[in-house]
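2024-03-11 09:14:02 INFO worker-7 job=invfold-0412 stage=load source=structure_tokens
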């Protein structure tokens, strides 16, 4: 019977150092060439990695362990819920702003009306033509501001109505 060829001559021989470290580790554990504690550690580590990958990929879902990744349906539902909350806050803020703006406009109209009346009274009492011209210019400004604010024209009350 012929002698088996020398492994180095056949070209099929691979030394342990030429293998990737992962393969060397598995072979080391399987062949128990290390201490028992090291073998137990690496077997536990590999088992935990296997369970982790199975869990992350969703293979354990039937046992109550859902995958670690977000489903598109969950993401859409969460986004819709957040959008609804933001829309609600926006709506309340806009309502509050409209209410405040309405109050400010009402107070501004009342203020302009009072100022117009007081200026008209001062115009009726003024005797100097320079004072009357200044008061009339101020009345014109108040009328313009009132028209800009309300869109309605207002006239200064005549002197006969103020007495």
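2024-03-11 09:14:09 INFO worker-7 stage=emit residues=163
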């Amino acid at each position: 019977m012929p002698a088996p060829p020398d492994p180095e001559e056949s070209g099929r021989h691979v030394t342990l150092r030429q293998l990737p470290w992962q393969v060397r580790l598995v072979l080391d554990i399987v062949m128990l060439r290390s201490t028992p504690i090291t073998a137990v550690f690496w077997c536990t580590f590999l088992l935990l990695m296997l369970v982790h990958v199975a869990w992350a990929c969703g293979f354990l879902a039937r046992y109550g362990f859902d995958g670690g990744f977000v489903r598109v349906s969950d993401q859409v539902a969460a986004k819709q819920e957040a959008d609804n909350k933001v829309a609600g806050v926006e709506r309340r803020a806009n309502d509050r702003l409209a209410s405040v703006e309405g109050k400010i406009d009402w107070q501004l109209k009342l203020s302009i009306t009072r100022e117009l009346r007081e200026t008209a009274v001062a115009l009726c009492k003024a005797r100097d033509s320079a004072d009357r011209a200044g008061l009339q210019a101020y009345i014109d400004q108040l009328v313009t501001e009132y028209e800009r604010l309300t869109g309605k024209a207002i006239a200064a009350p005549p002197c006969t109505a103020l007495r």
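2024-03-11 09:14:09 INFO worker-7 stage=report msg="The mean pLDDT is 82."
2024-03-11 09:14:10 INFO worker-7 job finished
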